[in-house]
Amino acid sequence: MKKLFFIPIFLMLFTTGCVPKSIIDDINIEAASAFDELEDDTFIGTVLIQEYLPDQSTENKTFTATANLRRDLLLNIQRQSSEPLHLGGLMVTIFGDKLADRGIIDFVDNYQRDPSIGARNFLATSSGSALQILKGEYGPRGNSDYLNNLIEHNMRYRDLPETNLHIFIRDYYTKGKDPYLPELRQINNKEVEISGLSLFKKDREVHVLPTEKMFFFKLLADRHSNGSFKVDLGIDKEAEIKSIASKRKIKLSKKYPSQVVIHIKIKGVIPEYTGDKITPQIVKEVEKALEKEVNKECLSLVKQFQEQGIDPIGFGFYHRKQIRGYDFKKWEEDYKRLTFKIKTDVNIVETGVVE
Amino acid sequence: MKRWLNKKQNETKPNKADWEKTLEKSNDFTRSNYINQKSNVHFCLTFIATLVDEQIIQQGVLPYLLEGELKTLEDIKKTVPSADVEISNDQTVIDKKILNGYIMLTIDSEPEHFAFIATQKEIVRSLSPPEIEFSVIGPKEAFVESLGQNLNLIRKRLPVKELIIEEYTLGSLSQTKVAVLYMEGITNEDNINTVKQRISEVEFDAITDSSYIVQLISDNSNSPFPQLLDTERPDRIAGILAEGKIAIVVDGSPHVLIAPTTLIEFFSSFEDYFLNWILASFFRLIRGCAVLFSLLVTPIYVAVLSYHYELIPKDLLGTLVTSRRQIPLPPILEALFLELTIELLREAGARLPTKVGQTIGIVGGIVIGTASVEAGLTSNVLLIIVALAALASFTTPVYKMGNTIRLLRFPFLIFAELWGLLGIVFAFCIMLTHLIRLTSLGRPFLEPFYPPRATDLKDAFIRLPFNKQTLRPLFLRTKNRTRYNKKKATEKKDIDE
Q1: Which domain holds residue B403?
Q2: CB within 8 Å of chain B, chain A residues 133-162
Q3: What pLDDT score does B9 carry?
Q4: Which domain does A331 fall in, by range?
Q5: CB atoms A88 and B322 under 8 Å
Q6: CA nearest B427 in A: which residue?
Q7: Average pLDDT over chain B, rounded to whole?
Q8: Do A235 and A186 fall within a single domain?
Q9: At the N or C end, where does chain A have fewer CB atoms within 10 A?
Q10: Quick one: A94 and A229 in the same domain?
Q11: A352: pLDDT strictly greater than 90
Q12: Read out DSSP for B88-132?
């Protein structure tokens, strides 16, 4: 028994060299990367590294290389780096316009297999050059932090539906659902913004949803936890609804499999109102107006997806899930014939302290 | 003298000249002859001057011997006002009696008989507050080096006839008195017999402290974990005796042993019982976390910085990289350097008198710490971590367990360096396996976690109120499990009802 006990200890001692070491100050940790495609089927990639300076500030450093094959890219970049590059610190990956049109799954697949890369990494597309976004200067905390926080807070509190590496891969492999990613645009060397939402068919970008529609898209695809929206009530009357929390339910019936009913429930608070006193009547009015607008916009969005043949909300998935014995091979045809009905229920819970 | 005291020689009949010859070599061996004034009987007193109290001889023995009726040895019992007077004709006990502080009295007419009168000099330190297990609330008495006084401290806390004290003499040279205490009708017979057997089988020449007994009778002497708890608080001893445990008091040691124990007892301070149960539970949980923190934080630092950089949160990465930028050493050497420095400081502080010790603490903490950071030998993040870990290890209420924890950190560090987090898990598994196998007097050391005993969890990580603790710990297998009858207790009505 005692001898047996020593075997694992000896094994541990003799196999210590098998574990590759990566001491944090002796490696370069990739913080963000961007990929794009050049004219002649070659890829170009940029890797961003945060250099931590002794005075606690950070410096952005980028390496750029081209290659014919995806896996050569990192090798070519390694040749420029003073210390070995490691992927584990990755926060944001941006895919250029061209590459997104061609398909990005090869790159994402690489991330999926590397255990050091977290599943909550952000993926994004760019309008314009992806590489230039990384080469900007967006504040003292470093570009990767900036981009990461930009996407994160917009997902948590604003109109961007939640996406990350995990959700992208899930949507990609789910039958009857297509992924979507935020689109970034560099305004100038010091500013960058979220310019829309890229909608994919499998791994190819098909359409970019403008920012005005993102609120409605999030109602359909995800749920709001702290959104805000402005409602017009005719001349000189505007109400802003805040702290919007929404839920949506998609219902199918076996009887009418070609009709999809989407229930959207919205709860909100009115902190700003440009008219006079808010009476219960006005609250009703606001609720009605919002309901109407949501119904209209959402329906047009859904119909647009139907025409484009993409399914970011996952109606196909709901068919598979909710209808027993549904033959998914028919889905492509069924989708074209699908009719939609949107029922919205808005509830204003509070109108401010002063009555 | 040493050879003369040897047991084997004692078995062969020692002749009178033999013990006298050896004792006469010592200067404090005294023999003087007197004559009784009434009966003119010649008598002789033999004693060792350093062991007897001269005041007792001058005031309590000699006047009566010189002026009282003294014809035979039997008369001593009438004349000398001392409770401990013994008359014997056994030559083999002479040396023991004399060396225990008795004076031997012989009369020419009765050469075969000797009388022994107790005149021991008791040099006793006065009671002082406990130093290692100090508590803000609660009694401020601690054990001292005298067996009699220690037993008195326990007896007066448990004045019942069920408290049994059995005495043994151990050590061929030191002749140390060891007392085993237990409650009859409560304590498990098996436990008592195990303790008695192990104590009576101890073979050692000089037992100068209770720590010797711990090492000699514990179940696994190769374990870094202490398996018997030692305490300097008489109230704690009274408490554990009532629970059904056994106490071992050793003469000359201010620490009393408790057996059997469990691991969790080493992390519970007796002050926990003086506080409200919510506060006590909170402090116990803090202490538990501190122990884990102290054990694992430096190894985790080494493992993460050497192998698992991707585990570091992005906001912390900058701080860590900046702090390590100038350091020429890999994380393991950096950590070992600092850990050893802290151990050096502790060791130096423990060996020096208090005032110098404080200076050393300041020199070590401030000068060495900041200087090594400024010189670029260690990172300031690690300095904080190591200092906190050292601080956390001192929260263990039992000093010996704190030492064990600090020692265990080093194998953990080495495993962390070799295999990263996997190595830490492996080291933890080894430690856990060892703890599971460990026993204290044959009772499982890791109880109530392994074997799981839900009822004993009431007084483990958290301490539930006394009205929930109606039963004695299960693992002690006490003869009478109920501490008090809950029904009876609730039957009594409040005075204002």
Answers
A1: 277-443
A2: 144-145, 148
A3: 46
A4: 217-355
A5: no
A6: A9
A7: 87
A8: no
A9: N
A10: no
A11: no
A12: E--GGGHHHHHHTTEEEEEETTEEEEEEEEE-B----PPP---ST
